[in-house]
Amino acid sequence: MTRILLLGGTGDALQIARTLRASDVYSLAGIGKVPVDLACAVRVGGFGGAHGLHTYLVNERIGLLIDATHPFAARISANAASACRDAQVRYWALRRAPWQPQAGDDWHMVDNWPQIVSALTRYRRPLFTLGREPLGHLDEIPSDQYWVVRCLESHAGNARASVIGARGPFTIDGERALFASYDIDVIVTKNSGGSATAAKLDVARERGLPVVMTRRPELPPADREFDSPAALLQTLRELAPHR
Ligand code: NAP
Predict the structure, then answer these.
(1) Residue 16: helix, strand or coil by DSSP?
(2) pTM for the complete prediction?
């Protein structure tokens, strides 16, 4: 029977984890919630780079690695691809499609923090939905800006920044209320794709607001790529019906 190692930390990964068997392993980095109701084993924390992951794959006799990490978690994906190649373990990846701009959208594409800062010079009240990165720059807020940062962590903010600790999914009505109450004039986000956090883009379009959109990092090719948990699970059932 093929033993699976599932790399997760996303809602999609949790969906897959719920179908795994006791002999399989669900792996988390350790920055979010750890589920306690899964049939499979759960391990938490890094492997120690590609070399450590290679050792784990061999020692634990893993036959298939499923990479369902977030598309911006590029380091673990690179490590997984490299470790699987060296250990001759199959490497599957769940890569949800990126969002695409629609009619009426005003997207400014960026790759890194300096490009974000430069794209924001014309705006006053940005909403950041980038994760924790802006928290490291709260002392650098220009005197004519007020930042709203939404991320998983709670944080006191400061005189020119509010930090909202929240976890998606987010509704369109909730996003409308957030934009209105903070008088947001631009949003800064990353192209995660998926539906759970897409409502902010609908509200930006409704309000005619620009979006500073971080491009996805380059991810390694996989032996098989899937764009949804359902497609991946279907293939798993076809290839190993008695798992
Ligand atoms: P990253 O930069 O690609 O990975 C940093 C290090 O964290 C990796 O080198 C690895 O440590 C460890 N790691 C990451 N995912 C792991 C996993 N599933 N199991 C065991 N170790 C893991 O990742 P990140 O951007 O910091 O994200 C960390 C986790 O949060 C990921 O699992 C990702 O799915 C989830 N997440 C990330 C984002 C995002 O925007 N980046 C959003 C939502 C969820 P070692 O080198 O020691 O093995």
Answers:
(1) helix
(2) 0.93
